[in-house]
Amino acid sequence: MKELVESIAKALVDYPEDVQVREEETNGSITVTLSVHTDDMGKVIGKQGRIAKSIRSVVYAAGANQQKRVYLEIG
Amino acid sequence: MKNVTVSGKTIEEAVDAGLDKLEVEKENVNIKVIEEPQKGFLGLIGNRPAIVELTLKPDPCQEALNFLRDTIDKMGVEVSIEKEEVKDGFVFQITGEQIGILIGKRGQTLDSLQYLVNLVANRYANEYIRITLDAEGYRERRKQALEQLAERIRNKVLRMKKEVRLEPMSAQERKVIHTTLQKDGDVKTFSSGEEPNRRIVVAPK
Question: Where is each R3H domain found (chain B) (predicted)?
Answer without folding.
Answer: 140-205
